[in-house]
Design a protein that fits this description.
Helix content is 40%, strand content 14%. It is an alpha+beta fold. It has a single domain, classed as L-fuculose-1-phosphate Aldolase (3-Layer(aba) Sandwich). A hairpin with a 3-residue loop joins strand 6 and strand 7. The relative contact order is 0.18. The model has no long low-confidence stretch (mean pLDDT 97). It binds manganese (II) ion.
Length: 241
């Protein structure tokens, strides 16, 4: 996908995440630059449902804006760069305050996949607590040290929660990161409902691995087409994995 198409795809991803309730006025999605892996693309600070191609900015992995002009970047851009620095497989990163994940980040109850569509979240979702290393803060990841500490915590995982704040999702493409973000919210909501009913039989580790291995372009593009329609956006050319 060329740069112009990728920027349109990133706009679409923002609109979908807003339409599906994963982001509200806050939260963001980035993509690694297709021509320079040491840079990433992310909107200026704006509510995701309002974002246009003209809002997209280029950043160095340490969060330095490279073409800002008079545009104001997101304070929490360090989440994205910190992950891209240490995860060559990460092509897209989502940060959100997805409502149903919040209780898991503050209770110590582990968020784990329980629906086949949700295997993409990984075997278990860990919680990064800003207080462990940084003490009392506004809980925002507002500098490169915090971004790198979070990335170290995430390690090879696909998802993580931020205590009292939200979640981070890592994808192999924009469509993959959007898919996992939406199903992370779905899983969290279902898990709370199931916990109220009794003991849960989660997906087994082997089931999670089997489903992840089968989650490719067919699944991602089928969901993407539907979400594009709901967000009133064209599907675009990407049939990426
Ligand atoms: Mn945030």
């Amino acid at each position: 996908m060329n740069l112009d198409a990728l920027l349109e795809e990133l706009v679409t991803a923002n609109r979908i995440l807003a339409t599906e309730g994963v982001v509200d006025s806050f939260g963001h999605i980035s993509v690694r630059h297709p021509e320079n892996p040491q840079q990433f693309l992310l909107s200026r600070a704006r509510a995701p449902d309002c974002i246009e191609v003209e809002d997209m900015m280029t950043f160095a992995l340490d969060g330095t804006p490279l073409d800002a002009g008079d545009r104001k970047p997101y304070l929490e851009r360090f989440i994205h760069g910190g992950i891209y620095e240490v995860r060559p497989d990460a092509m897209s990163v989502v940060h959100n305050h997805s409502p149903s994940v919040i209780p898991f980040g503050i209770t110590g109850k582990k968020l784990r996949p329980l629906l086949h569509m949700c295997a993409s979240i990984g075997h278990e979702v860990g919680t990064w607590d800003s207080q462990d290393k940084f003490g009392d803060t506004a809980l925002l990841i507002e500098n490169v040290e915090m971004g790198r500490d979070l990335a170290r915590f995430i390690g090879p995982q696909r998802t993580a929660l931020l205590r009292g704040h939200g979640a981070v999702v890592i994808g192999a493409s924009i469509r993959h990161a959007v898919f996992t973000s939406i199903y992370l919210e779905v899983n969290a909501k279902l898990q709370m409902q199931a916990m109220a009913m009794g003991d849960i039989k989660f997906l087994s580790p082997g089931e999670v691995d089997t489903i992840i291995a089968r989650t490719g372009p067919y699944t991602l593009n089928r969901a993407w087409e539907n979400w594009c329609r709901r967000a009133d956006r064209p599907m675009g050319p990407g049939a990426e994995s």
